[in-house]
Amino acid sequence: MKDIGIEKKSLSSIAFKKIIELIENDVLKIGEKLDAEQKLANKLNISRPVLREALQKLELEGYIMRKHGVGTFVISKTPMLSTGLERLDSMTDLVKAQNYSVGTIGTAELCKCTDDSIREILGLEKTDNLMFFERIRTADKKPFALDYIYIPEKYICEDFYTKYADASLLNYFSTVQGTPIFSSQCNIFAENASANVAEKLAILENEALQVLEQTFYTNMNEPVFYGKSLIVNNIMKFHLVRRR
């Protein structure tokens, strides 16, 4: 590696920005293992504690990943998407707000679903059809979420699959169905990626994922649709402000 030293008076924030610059300019490439902490600190002309603080922030923002007993690796040129769970925003709006190009790939055709547990959540009658499809959401063309979507057939318009299945469903219900989504009941937990899911999200099998399950409601507290998103850990994170 060429000389990348920075002045001793620099703090961890400057070291943080310097390492990002090296990653963005391919001096440190995706998948590359970083030097041992002391060696890297010497190259940057900073102390080891300052480097550790910078590395911690880089890991939190999704640029690097630390593997205990193995080393630290560069995993991304872009910061992790971050959102609070207090506000109900669509994935589409979240990605756009952080200046990423949002997209959808691998949208499966609608099919009927007979999952009784989801039918019960949505309060469907025996004669009501429940439709299901899946899609992969991307940020700057990189897969970050696999969505499983369950919608009662009565909310599916004739051109839903060709015009709306790839976009924001919150916007669809508001503008097309005239049924604005007011709230969601949300569960978030961890799950390991199966071989099938890993292939779709371009990650390793058994890699930990964040799972976001949501039932969406109108302002009259009527359930409208259900979604389950399997989200790549190093691309998106959620935070929640808790107060006493």
What's the helix and strand layout?
Blueprint: H1 12-24, H2 37-44, H3 48-60, E1 64-67, E2 71-74, E3 81-84, H4 91-97, E4 102-105, E5 111-113, H5 116-121, E6 130-139, E7 142-152, H6 160-163, H7 169-175, E8 183-192, H8 195-201, E9 208-217, E10 223-232, E11 236-239
Parallel strand pairs: 3-11
Antiparallel strand pairs: 1-2, 4-6, 5-6, 6-7, 7-10, 8-9, 9-10
Helix pairs in contact: 1-3, 2-3
Description:
This protein is α+β, with helices and mostly antiparallel strands and about 240 residues long. Helix content is about 25%, strand content about 30%. The chain has helices spanning about 10-25, 35-45, 50-60, 90-95, 115-120, 160-165, 170-175, 195-200, and strands at about 65, 70-75, 80-85, 100-105, 110-115, 130-140, 140-150, 185-190, 210-215, 225-230, 235-240. Strands 4, 5, 6, 7, 8, 9 and 10 form a seven-stranded antiparallel beta sheet that branches. It has a two-stranded antiparallel sheet with strand order 1-2. It has a two-stranded parallel ribbon with strand order 3-11. Strand 9 and strand 10 form a beta hairpin. Helix 1 crosses helix 3 (about 50-60) and helix 2 (about 35-45) packs across helix 3 (about 50-60). The longest helix is centred in the N-terminal third of the chain and has 13 residues, at about 10-25. The protein is elongated.
